[in-house]
């Protein structure tokens, strides 16, 4: 009598073929292989209940070949002034910036110019490349940059000059190396604005050795008591102002909201007037 082995053989074959070995699993990613893209900070952070608006200005006319060079700086200790001679290329002083008519803000009838800022004082508009200005006692820090006719700075390292020199007398500036350290220079608003020139008031500043993308730096802008945070170096428009006197204060702060050390990183309170006519 023959023994039936076929059913048993079939069961063994099914058991062998029905459970293939499991595929090896990949190891979990380590900290070295994880890539986290930080969230981009908003350009402007408004305070709760803000009555005003602070908005990024639309892109302005560009001057990619603009270049500003200081040829000579001659301090005169007797008259306490200094003579400046610049060379300007790729940018025409006294010309109207092509998009001036569409910006909706105040514009200089005298055209494009050099913003001259001495020791954190309000800027002076220089419409020629050679000029003489008063200097302060002791240490002097001069910032000059090319400006569109509506007073918006060209934010290019080829279109700016910063220079230090000393005069007789006692220093009035706080310590700090503006050539190497992060530094904020206040520019606009300044002076009187007429409503007929537009409802937008330009807020502009100049930065040295930072562009707000490093170390979490920000500019704290206090406008009529409202505290705004600016995270991008750009030009801005203040909108919604009533007629009358207004105040602006700009401060360069770190990621904890503390003032960054430097002689100009707190602009102090600046006043300007928004007039009906």
Q: Can you characterise this structure?
A:
The chain has 277 residues and is mainly beta. The protein has one domain (44-275). It is 4% helix and 38% strand. The protein contains one helix and 17 strands. The protein has one helix at 6-17; strands at 44-45, 53-56, 67-76, 81-89, 113-118, 124-126, 130-134, 138-147, 160-167, 183-188, 191-194, 201-208, 218-223, 226-230, 236-239, 244-253, 270-275. The chain has a six-stranded mixed beta sheet, with no helix packed on it. A four-stranded antiparallel beta sheet has the order 2-15-12-10, with no helix packed on it. The longest helix has 12 residues, at 6-17. The radius of gyration is 30 Å and the shape is globular.
Helix/strand-derived class?
mainly beta
Oligomer: single chain
- Quote the average pLDDT: 90
Overall form: globular
**Proportion of helical residues:** under 10%
Beta-strand percent range: 35-45%
Across the major sheet, the strand order is 1-14-13-16-17-11
Domains (count)? 1
- The total strand number stands at 17
């Amino acid at each position: 009598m023959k023994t039936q082995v076929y059913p048993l053989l079939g069961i063994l074959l099914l058991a062998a073929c029905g459970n293939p070995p499991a595929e090896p699993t990949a190891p979990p990613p380590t900290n070295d292989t994880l890539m986290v893209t930080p969230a981009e900070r908003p350009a402007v952070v408004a305070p709760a209940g803000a009555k005003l608006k602070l908005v990024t200005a639309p892109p302005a006319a560009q001057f990619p070949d603009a270049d500003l060079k200081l040829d000579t700086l001659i301090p005169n200790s007797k008259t306490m002034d200094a003579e400046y001679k610049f060379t300007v290329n790729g940018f025409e002083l006294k010309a109207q910036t092509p998009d001036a008519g569409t910006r909706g803000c105040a514009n200089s009838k005298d055209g494009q110019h050099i913003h001259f800022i001495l020791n954190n004082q309000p800027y002076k508009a220089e419409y020629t490349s050679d000029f003489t200005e008063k200097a302060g006692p002791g240490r002097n820090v001069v910032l000059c940059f090319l400006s569109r006719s509506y007073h918006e700075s060209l934010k290019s390292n080829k279109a700016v000059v910063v220079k230090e020199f000393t005069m007789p007398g006692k220093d009035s500036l706080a310590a700090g190396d503006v050539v190497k350290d992060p530094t904020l220079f206040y520019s606009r608003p300044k002076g009187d604005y007429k409503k007929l020139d537009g409802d937008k008031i330009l807020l502009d500043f100049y930065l040295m050795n930072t562009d707000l993308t490093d170390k979490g730096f920000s500019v704290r802008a206090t406008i009529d008591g409202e505290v705004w945070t600016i995270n991008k170096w750009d030009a801005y428009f203040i909108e919604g102002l009533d007629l009358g006197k207004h105040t602006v204060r700009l401060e360069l702060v770190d990621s904890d909201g503390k003032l960054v050390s430097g002689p100009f990183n707190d602009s102090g309170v600046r006043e300007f007037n928004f007039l009906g006519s």
